[in-house]
Each structure stands twice: as C-alpha cells, then as structure tokens.
Amino acid sequence: MDVRKIVFTTEEILAEAGDRLPRPVRRVAGIAVIKNPYAGRFVEDLTPLFDVGMELGGLLMKRVVDLLGGKAVSYGKAAIVGTMGDVEHGAAILHPKLGKPMREAVGGGEAIIPSNAKVAAAGTLIDIPLVNKDNIWSFDELDTMTVVVADAPRPDEILVAMAVADGGRPRPRVGKGRAVV
In the prediction, which pLDDT does 42 show? Predict the structure, then answer.
C-alpha cells in the first residue's frame, strides 16, 4: 500500500433550522489517498485490495474515533477511484475486510456499514453515508458527511474515507415512532 496523504476532518453542527442545538453533533472523517496498483489496466482478481481495506481501517479508524471525543453512534465509508481505475477497485477496498477494523474501533457495530464508491477526478466531493452502528432501521441517524480533498484522487489513485458521528441529523423529525408506510 502506497499512501500519498492522510487527511482528518472534523465538523461540529451547533445550530439547525434557525435554532441552537441542545448538544452539538460531531462528525469526523479519516481519508487516505493511495496509489491504485491497477490503474490503467483491467485485472480480474482484486483480492489484494481486500487487505488494503483492512490496513487502511487499522491506520485510520482509531484516530478517527479518538478525534470524535466521545462514543460513536453512526459510521460509514466511501471511496473515489481516480479516472484511470474502475469502481470495483473502490469496492474491493471497502467491502470484504474494512468493516472489521471499523467495528473494532467503535466498540462493536451490529449494522451493515454503508458505503459509496465512484470514479471521478481530483477535487470531487463524496458523500459518506452514515447509519446507526447497531440498528440500520434507526432513521434519525440516516445521514451523510460530505468530504473533499482538493488534489485527490489523481488519475492513478484511490481516495478512501471512513467517518463516524456522535449523533444523528441535528433536528430529526422522521423517525422515533412515526408511522412508516
């Protein structure tokens, strides 16, 4: 794994819908920009990228959770593959093995870890989907954290992002016992 850069970003939401929140909602993302070993060519067997996901989770997630400064309630992951790669390169990093170090860092996690992967140029925004780490049906935590790295991914790179939050949407009004049709 050839890492060019690591970025951590934290956001605190203090107000929403014109009102101060009783408690800020914190979200933290850890982002690694790595060389894509398969850029520019088709490769059938992507299993070496499975271990890259596990390595990146080990490299980033403990620090992401530490930067959160409290208990992680929700989590998610995303990847942008540079234009010389294909979306399966991101999927190979995100899916088979990245979940284990993410769950270890947040102290468990029963729910599937949502993900988003796409092919795009440097400076493209990506939404990291977030869900409650223990209950995928907890609607109040269905959310996103948008991140960007201005110079990544370059055509032969992959940007991999993991995020956690200590709460859901700032003023949720579509969950908690409301009827779902």
Answer: 97
pTM of the prediction?
A: 0.94
The pLDDT-based confidence of 99 (bands split at 50, 70, 90) is: very high
**The residue to which tokens 């014109």 are assigned:** 18
> If you average pLDDT over residues 21-28, what whole number do you get?
96
Q: Which domains does the chain have, with CATH numbers?
A: 3-14+23-165 (3.30.1330.110)
When computed from its CA atoms, the radius of gyration of the chain, rounded to whole angstroms, is: 16
**pLDDT at position 181:** 46
d(CA 17, CA 4): 39
Residue 177 neighbours by CB under 8 Å, 6+ apart: none
Please name which of 104, 95, 93 lies closest in space to residue 160, comparing C-alpha atoms.
Answer: 93
What is the C-alpha to C-alpha distance for residues 90 and 166, in angstroms, rounded to an integer? Answer: 26
The per-residue pLDDT for 89 is 98
